[in-house]
Amino acid sequence: MSLMAEVHPLPEPEPAPDRIPLEEVYMRMAEELAKRSTCLRLQVGTVITTPDLTQVLGIGYNGNARGLPNRCDSTTPGACGCIHSEMNAVIKAGAQLPGKVMFVSASPCVMCAKMAINANVARVYYREAYRDPAGLDVLRQGGVEVIHYNRWRDLWRS
User: Fold this and answer.
1) Other beta carbons less than 10 A from residue 76's beta carbon
2) How much is the pLDDT for 137?
């Protein structure tokens, strides 16, 4: 007796919603914030919201510390001296509220992933993958839901 795999039809693609989803709004906010970054290698923006997506708790972009020159300290990759966007956003959002949602234009590095876990972030949406995917693994190991969010990127553009 031969076993045949069951054939299931492919699901119909989900139609686009009538209006822009909040996830896309916050992701675009993160992308706009990234434009403020003075980092020479990678500009990143972050938005942290409440679990129900109704309030922004913190925003950030990568760059030097307040009062220091708006430029990288070094051109060596990984040693530019910029504070990462996720760190800047968590500083403003605080760590007490559980279940926070983070929207980031590029996936977090390992250290930012660990910081997000300790700051009670429950879900991370990212648009582009960072050159080192290890941060995504750390988030998952820490019980954080990770979502590569690129679904409605080209809709609702004027």
Assistant:
1) 10
2) 96
